[in-house]
């Protein structure tokens, strides 16, 4: 099971933190600080796999990838394959690249809800749902269409209701 997904910049500011097990906010912040401390202390030529038992409990592993100014981090237990998690990070980043045309930190900051939608299409409740970035893009586009249709229906109903009250 995937326990958490973190996206943080190179200064340690979390840009996305999604925990799939309940953790009090203070504990979440402590985990984010600990993860960043581990990541920034590692040389670039070492493995992207880290034992996360010290700050996430027994059998916890951490895999990360560093792209430009962002770290993408998945924390998971022994039931998940480390290489599969590394590939899943790649799928997540590729999907973000397709949605935002070369994703950067500002895209993550200003499109927070879309980023959560993308992540929810890939992982839900700590379980992997989809590994094809093309399928994820299709689902996100459908959700965007439904949201646009929903907001236009709301706009019409408000204008019609105000017209009737005249």
TrEMBL record:
Top-level division of the source organism's lineage? Eukaryota
Q: Which InterPro entries match?
A: AP_complex_ssu (IPR016635), AP_mu_sigma_su (IPR022775), APS3 (IPR027155), Clathrin_sm-chain_CS (IPR000804), Longin-like_dom_sf (IPR011012)
Give start and end of each AP complex mu/sigma subunit domain.
1-146
User: What processes does the entry annotate via GO biological process terms?
Assistant: Golgi to vacuole transport; intracellular protein transport
Q: Any idea where this protein resides?
A: Cytoplasmic vesicle membrane; Golgi apparatus
Keyword Protein transport included in the entry's annotation: yes
Its placement in the membrane is given as: Peripheral membrane protein
Q: Which GO terms describe its cellular component?
A: AP-3 adaptor complex; cytoplasmic vesicle membrane; Golgi apparatus
Keywords per UniProt? Cytoplasmic vesicle, Golgi apparatus, Membrane, Protein transport, Transport
Question: Keyword ATP-binding: yes or no?
Answer: no
Q: Which family does this protein fall into? A: Belongs to the adaptor complexes small subunit family.
Its protein name is AP complex subunit sigma
High-level lineage: Eukaryota, Viridiplantae, Streptophyta, Embryophyta, Tracheophyta
């Amino acid at each position: 099971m995937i326990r958490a997904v973190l996206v943080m910049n190179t200064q340690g500011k979390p840009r996305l933190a999604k925990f799939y097990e309940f953790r009090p906010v203070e504990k979440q912040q402590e985990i984010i600080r600990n993860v960043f401390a581990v990541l920034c202390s590692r040389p670039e030529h070492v493995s992207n796999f880290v034992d996360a038992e010290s700050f996430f409990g027994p059998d916890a592993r951490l895999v990360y990838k560093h792209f430009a100014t962002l770290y993408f981090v998945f924390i998971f237990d022994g039931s998940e394959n480390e290489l599969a998690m590394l590939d899943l990070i790649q799928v997540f980043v590729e999907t973000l690249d397709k949605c935002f045309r070369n994703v950067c930190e500002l895209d993550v900051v200003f499109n927070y809800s879309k980023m959560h939608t993308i992540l929810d299409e890939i992982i839900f409740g700590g379980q992997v749902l989809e590994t094809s970035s093309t399928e994820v893009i299709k689902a996100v586009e459908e959700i965007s269409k439904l949201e646009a249709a929903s907001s236009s229906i709301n706009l019409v109903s408000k204008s019609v209701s105000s017209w009737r009250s005249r």
